[in-house]
Design goal:
Length: 302
């Protein structure tokens, strides 16, 4: 895999995937998006973002020479033919909305070589439902990355019934090469991790609804009692993942029934436009702490 393209590579997950590919292999990596400003944002995040190459230099994990070498293998473009035309592997990482995914995957299939593997980064959508976007669905496989995607080792790999075994094997081999821990799972709504984690988050939201505990108290208990680096509501706010969680939970509810119903309070927060910290979501009015008027937990000493 010498040429890797990241479709939607400017987002939180996409630029992290780009980072993982840059630092884990000697591949050339191309960020592809429709808007020039978005491409520039992604390129900057790879170098200067909170988990970017500059931070690695500051922490002594990468040399200046290593940073320059990695950046020399990174480019960005709004031209799909240019950005995808020589790709060996395309990671698609756009918002968790089936219609948007289908459109993006169709564009990728049209621009990429017929031999290219297309890996959709989804936390909930069945790969079989997205297969119709490709003329050759045997080239499509699901990869569920976790934030921050250049740091977290786990990647769920979900082939559909139409995915060629050699495609699944090639993706697992590549992920292993870049120091990830791929785990193959069945193609099912939410795979395993989303079913597990989303249910955990939903119960935390219901506990706030019932007045059992506030967001700060729940976050403190999760960090202290379970060892999570972030609390539930900090996670939803500070990684801008609330809207992704919301869309995934609605999808699970539709496919799997009421056990995955979105709590009424979550509907209120989403409808009111509180999608997460506006640092991450510029259209957002804030996050859960702002909506509830709650004070955030004090930052811990490191």
């Amino acid at each position: 895999m010498k040429n890797i393209s990241i479709l939607g590579g400017a987002g939180l997950m996409g630029h992290g995937i780009a980072l993982a590919c840059l630092t884990g292999s000697d591949a050339r990596v191309t960020i592809v998006s429709r808007r020039e400003a978005t491409v520039e944002k992604g390129l900057d995040a790879v170098e200067n973002g909170p988990y970017g190459l500059r931070k690695a230099v500051d922490r002594g994990r990468l040399t200046e020479e290593g940073l320059r070498e990695a950046m020399s293998r990174l480019e960005g473009t709004t031209d799909y033919a240019d950005g995808l035309g020589s790709a060996d592997l395309v990671f698609e990482s756009i918002p968790e909305v089936p219609e948007l995914k289908l459109e993006a995957l169709a564009s990728a299939a049209e621009a990429a070589p017929p031999t290219a593997i297309v890996a959709t980064n989804t936390s909930s959508i069945m790969i079989a439902e997205l297969s119709s976007a490709l003329p050759d669905p045997s080239r499509l496989v699901g990869t569920h990355w976790f934030y921050p995607s250049n740091v977290m080792p786990l990647v769920e790999v979900a082939p559909s019934a139409l995915t060629a075994p050699e495609v699944t094997g090639a993706v697992i081999d590549y992920l292993s090469t870049i120091r990830k821990r791929p785990v193959q799972v069945k193609d099912a709504p939410g795979f395993f991790m989303t079913r597990f984690v989303n249910s955990f988050i939903a119960e935390a939201i219901r506990s706030v609804e019932l007045g059992i505990a506030g967001p700060a108290e729940i976050d403190e208990m999760v960090k202290t009692g379970l060892g999570w680096p972030m609390g539930v509501f900090e996670l939803l706010d500070d990684t801008a993942s609330f809207d992704a969680w919301y869309h995934a939970q609605e999808y699970l509810h539709d496919k799997c029934g009421d056990r995955y119903a979105v709590p009424p309070l979550a509907h209120q927060v989403f409808s009111a436009g509180f999608l997460g910290d506006s640092t991450f979501k510029h259209s957002s009015r804030g996050g859960w702490y702002e909506f509830l008027g709650a004070d955030r937990p004090a930052a811990r000493e490191k």
